[in-house]
Amino acid sequence: RSLNGCHCCFESDASSIFNFLSFCLASIIKYKNDRVKLWASAFGGEMKSISAKYSGSQLLQKKYKEFERAVRVEEIDGLRLVKRLAEDMEEMFHKKAQAMKRLVEAAEEAHLQHEEDPNLQYEYFNAVLINEVDEEGNSVELGGEFILQPNDHFNNLSVNLSLSVVQVPTNMYNKDSAIVNGVYWSEALNKVFVDNFERDPSLIWQYFGSAKGFFRQYPGIKWKPDEHGVIAFDCRNRKWYIQAATSPKDVVILVDVSGSMKGLRLTIARQTVSSILDTLGDDDFFNIIAYNEELHYVEPCLNGTLVQADVTNKDHFREHLDKLFAQGIGMLDIALTEAFNLLSDFNETGRGSECSQAIMLVTDGAVDTYDAIFAKYNWPDRKVRIFPYLIGRESAFADNLKWMACANKGYFTQISTLADVQENVMEYLHVLSRPKVIDQEHDTVWTEAYIDSTLPQAQKLDDGQGPVLMTTVAMPVFSTKNETRNRGILLGVVGTDVPVSELLKTIPKYKLGIHGYAFAITNNGYILTHPDLRPLYGDGKKRRKPNYSSVDLSEVEWEDKDDTLRNAMVNRKTGTFSMEVKKSVDKGKRVLVLHNDYYYTDIKGTPFSLGVALSRGHGKFFFRGNVTVEEGLHDLEHPDVALADEWTYCNTDEHPEHRYLSQIEAIKLYLSGYEPHLQCDKELIQEVLFDAVVTAPLEAYWTSLVLNKSENSDKGVEIAYLGTRTGLSRINLFVVPDELTNQDFLTAEDKEGVFNADHFPLWYKRAAEQVPGTFVYSLPFNTGSENKSVVLASTAIQLLDERKSPIAAAVGIQMKLEFFQKKFWTASRQCAALDGKCSISCDDENINCYLIDNNGFVLVAEDYTLTGKFFGEAEGAVMSKLLQMGSFKRVTLYDYQALCWVYSESSDSGHTLLDPYFAFFSAMKWILTELVIFLVEFNLYSWWHSDLTAKAQRMGRTMQVPCDTEYPAFISERTIKENTGNLDCDGCIKSFVIQQIPSSNLFMVVVDNKCDCRYTLSVIALTSAAHNESLKCERLKMQKDRRRPDTCHPFHPELVLELERQVHLPLAHSDFSWTIMILRIKK
């Protein structure tokens, strides 16, 4: 019989038959392999011809070669570069800090000259009431006409650049005497606001947050209440205010969960604890202990330690507050003893704030003063302050709690209703601020990166990109009056926002190379800016992730397992570090394996450190070209030329008259020499002029292709595009815009396809990692169905014919997927038979043909639904074998910023607390329960509570929570060009051939489909797996290196508390008494 030309005659012995069959099988496989190689060669040749022709890659390579002798290649000195960038950022930050210092001086002088008048009447511009009229058309009180005009520097919001406005929280009376007096003397800040803005036009919002609760904001802008008519914003619980007003602190929160705390009291207690957590920042440490007859750590995993008060940890504890329930008897002595021991032991570890210490006591009463415990653990130094919060209206045990506060340098307050919580909780901040005030230490503080969506300016999206990520510089304002100086009165805090995008403007992206980037972190190791930081999610990326502001550097540079880079930067060192990195790109579906060199140093005057990453090879080299200004400008003004929107060629934000200029217009104005105030990057402009001249011939070349319509009669090729190392791009359409298959490509909506402030386009980055002269083909993952899909083909243009040559540019085309697939199927029908009859082709039912890329994604398959899918989902058995043979390798990636869907059975306590109906019902339930509790305490309450619990569980819902995930990516082995293999599927032998497409990143895979291997070998899918829940405890316990703030003000020897009455306290081991001055009690 005949097997594809191999004639077999079975008349010999068994051994001969076996050898002959082996020979026949090898011949068949070789025949298939040769045929697949023929198809691959034919398809590769045609696609390279089309791609090179329409992209103009050979012409551009030739043009750069012509300028080779006029070009100077330089190796980038990474350490020198990062130091220069740090100096530029230091100068920018210093200007912001100086503006705040001028505000502090003006505020303190204005307050010094002001005499408090309880009867003062003063009409000010209330941020909510301005331009509001009554039914008769007259301005409402505290309103009045306030001129507002759109301003592009403030995101086109309508503002007043001459005046500020005053916002008063909804729960405060806007004509209260203290507020009116504060507003009156702080009017003096208007002149300084305006002066600061004139000195530094890059400033945005400036403000003064008063300790009385009002908020003065410049420029003036109208505030609008939410749908409930409420403005929840209170400047005093903003991070910048708290951080500037107080020193770092270690806090233990004790929550009474005895039987008397049932009902509304426990609800108020939960909200009180939550509000205390709001006042803690990244430099603080805390834990929460509930007590009755026993101690109950709210998070049992953290028994006996404190954790950093970052957003993630605070949210984790909030989730556990709902699980508290009241029963039994409160044993406060046990709780206080545990709290003192916990603070002492943790302080000895050296991991905490090593500054202030406090115990927050949330209870409905204390039967004793517990002076023996205080004498043992806290006297005479009284290093731990006690802040009791009496829950409920009863005052029977108030005296004991007042005594505790005053005997331990604390503050007592009583909270009767939910509405009292926020105002009363914040009182302790004024106590902790007093040592700093008496020391007159105007510490400049910088916050971590955050988004404050409660402010009106944050409601407006930044150029449609999403909420603005920013840091705030703030300074405290003190009373300098002689009569109040030793009482340490904090007047408030001044601050200004610095958008993170402002930092990126100082970074010359063209100096960092294609894969290079700059990043900055805080003293806690949290990211201030990094291209891999993803703070937003959801449709349009407009929702903040819960833990977006506390993403650690180790969570994005995760290959540094020992935190060598992170710890060096946290400790403000200067140095270098190297490691291999796996960069996830294209929505996590692809991976680039690079070797990065890191350079880092500190930014003086701030808690930040700066780093620069440069990839080895072409990423370490830069070249300078030289052309005349005249020829450069001529070619820069071509209509097909665009410059990177987010790169700073000229600083058009510095002066108002420049803000309407495009970057090209600004460059022309700068080169004209008529505008000395316009600041531009001279070196970048010189290089962009050079690139404009070298790439100019492409315009005429592409135009000639468009005019010769027969060249592209089926309109398969739609766009040709070019990008250079200076952010210059050129685009040519071969079809009219309405006929484009992918309308978003190379537009602002295509984030990964254009030059951004912190990265080159994806097609540029992938082309740079290909062998010179080859094209990288891919399906964009943001396209729709196959009828709408396109294929991108791009290649890099090297300056020199050597490995270390810089990449000068990248060019490419966009073509229809249908056009691309037709070319593949045509090539796969070719054969070398003289009669034209092929014994094998991709049309055969017995084989399946696929075209996959170097990451394993299908571009062409007979089943069109597989287009864009991972090859392992279609042919899992074959993909497994390719991995075993080394044709592909699996790379494990980690995402520490992921969000996972979980089912939550707990009620939304935040919502119910804000619901007035629920609050009223809770109050009535509490009153009725208290009336009959002595008769049916357990039966009544259990019935009532279980009903509410059942209701809460019915409200359970699916929600997204932060989680860690690991997921696979796959990459081909460059050195293996072809391979063959066999699979044993229950006795059926399945063979396949894989062949690289020449001059590309593609592979043709031909699979014998006679055998069904679905039930013997599993499918390989690109699915992610969340880390085991048991690891959460270890993550909570883990405390990475951090650098404490440089200043600490826990106490002051001259601190004299306001006297209202005196008590005498016997001290242990002392034969004398001393007098403590007692704080005024706020009810």
TrEMBL record:
Protein location: Membrane
InterPro entries: Ca_channel_alpha-2/delta, VDCC_a2/dsu, VWA_N, VWF_A, vWFA_dom_sf
UniProt-listed PROSITE patterns: VWFA
Keyword match Transport: yes
Its membrane topology: Single-pass type I membrane protein
Gene3D superfamilies (UniProt xref): PAS domain, von Willebrand factor, type A domain
Domain VWFA, first and last residues per copy: 250-432
Coiled-coil spans in chain: 82-117
Main location per the UniProt record: membrane
Xref: Pfam families: VGCC_alpha2 (PF08473), VWA (PF00092), VWA_N (PF08399)
One Gene Ontology term of the molecular function aspect: metal ion binding
Keywords: Calcium, Calcium channel, Calcium transport, Coiled coil, Disulfide bond, Glycoprotein, Ion channel, Ion transport, Membrane, Metal-binding, Signal, Transmembrane, Transmembrane helix, Transport, Voltage-gated channel
Cellular component aspect of the GO annotation: voltage-gated calcium channel complex
Protein family: Belongs to the calcium channel subunit alpha-2/delta family.
Name this protein carries in UniProt: Calcium voltage-gated channel auxiliary subunit alpha2delta 3
Phylogenetic classification of the source organism: Eukaryota, Metazoa, Chordata, Craniata, Vertebrata
Name of the gene this protein is made from: CACNA2D3
